[in-house]
Amino acid sequence: MSLNARRNRQLLEAATPLLLQGEVVEFTSLAAIGSVSVRRQALTAAVVGVLSAGTVMATVTPRPLYILLTDQRVLFFDGNRGGKPGKLVLNLPRPYVSAGGSKKAFLGLQFTTRLSVAGQEQGLKVTFPVQHRGDGPRFVGALPVTR
Would you give the DSSP letter of residue 133? Predict the structure, then answer.
């Protein structure tokens, strides 16, 4: 399921001033970008558990970002925890971006892929949550495949 009409409109309103002349929007979605180490997750859970005397449990998750794929670029906007799209966070030229290592994750409820950017050693993990997991294969299909 893609973004609802209101969020899609808000994302397009945020992106329109940044689009180049003749640039066409092909895809919009929301995904978690990056990863959180097991060490950080354990440390956060331990600190919160100690401070709350075990009454509260905390988890750390990757940052949600809105993805806007155009015919020329891949733009990432602040996700505000699923709220109104915020500022532009990352702007990647589409010819330099490829996707690979795509798979279903967490009992098939999420879709995960890794973006590779030409000239960069480390990839960028993109996880489409359960509400937007159908967007994952569409997003990967629009980009070249990393070998």
Answer: T
Rounded CA-CA distance 98/86 in Å is 25
- The torsion angles phi and psi of 120, rounded to 5 degrees, stand at -110, 140
In the three-class reduction of DSSP (H, G, I as helix; E, B as strand; rest coil), residue 145 is classed as strand
Cα 105 from Cα 123, distance rounded (Å): 18
Per the structure block, which two tokens stand in for 15? 């992106």
**What angle (nearest 5°) sits at the alpha carbon of residue 78, between those of residues 113 and 17?**
110
Q: Say if residues 95 and 44 touch (Cβ distance below 8 Å).
A: no
Enter the pTM of the model: 0.83
Using CA atoms, how far apart are residues 85 and 73, in angstroms rounded to an integer?
18
Return the pLDDT at 37. 59
Q: Where are the beta strands (DSSP E) in the chain?
A: 25-33, 63-70, 73-78, 88-93, 97-105, 110-117, 124-128
Low-confidence ranges of the chain (pLDDT < 50): none
